[in-house]
Amino acid sequence: MIYFGDTARCPYGPRSPEEVRQFTDEIVAFLTRFPLKALVIACNTATAVALGKVREWLSIPVFGVVDPGARAAIKASSQGRIGVIGTEGTVRSEAYEGALKRIDPHLFVVSLACPTLVPLVESGEGDTKRARRIVRQALAPIKQYDLDTLILGCTHYPLISDLIRREMGPDVTLISSAEETAREISTVLHHKGLLHLSDAVDHGHRFYTTGHPGAFRRIAEQWLNQEVEVEQVALEPAVQNPIG
């Protein structure tokens, strides 16, 4: 696996669609230097504004994180009352509302931008009194809607899912768009005969970031529960700009 985290320019949520497309273009250009089987846009905001163009550009399977999360939420929802939390960019794009309503136009869907949650995750603060207060304040506006399902519409949010679950209560099912996407990728690669299941061969993982390698490493090791090597890179504008 080759993972690229654009932590120097994170979060993407407050940025314009044009900026996000430019950043996505640069990252895709970097990643396609490697012999990829598939590419995952593991960012809801970038998925919302750039997925279609990246799929047109590349011949390999390209996955976003919105549709898998939407499908899982509909399957989990018993009353058809679904909430979405994400960055400003994801919520502004209405990508989840569109994905959900295309499947079932009669759903009740409400979305909420939570700009304070990504910085909380990036801080690595954990389950503290301050973290609980930030989560409580962020989710307060959406708790009034009597939801039965909540989509974690940002790939940072599963790292604080315990805090979110505690605040939303036991009657609300949390859907991680990231986890649902991982399941879909595994299925597609398996069907294409591209999934290596053997533990006998170490295919290796590479981690790249535009930000501080130490900060990236700390969060990655906390999440993966293993040591990782991280390389800092400076992205260059792509020769072409197929996404713009």
UniProtKB/TrEMBL annotation:
Gene3D superfamilies the record matches: 3.40.50.1860
The protein's annotated pathway: Cell wall biogenesis; peptidoglycan biosynthesis
Catalytic activity: L-glutamate = D-glutamate
EC number: 5.1.1.3
Pfam families given in the database record: Asp_Glu_race
Record-level GO BP terms: cell wall organization; peptidoglycan biosynthetic process; regulation of cell shape
InterPro entries: Asp/Glu/hydantoin_racemase, Asp/Glu_race, Asp/Glu_racemase_AS_1, Asp/Glu_racemase_AS_2, Glu_race
GO molecular function: glutamate racemase activity
General function of this protein: Provides the (R)-glutamate required for cell wall biosynthesis.
Record protein name field: Glutamate racemase
Annotated source species: Marinithermofilum abyssi
This protein's encoding gene: murI
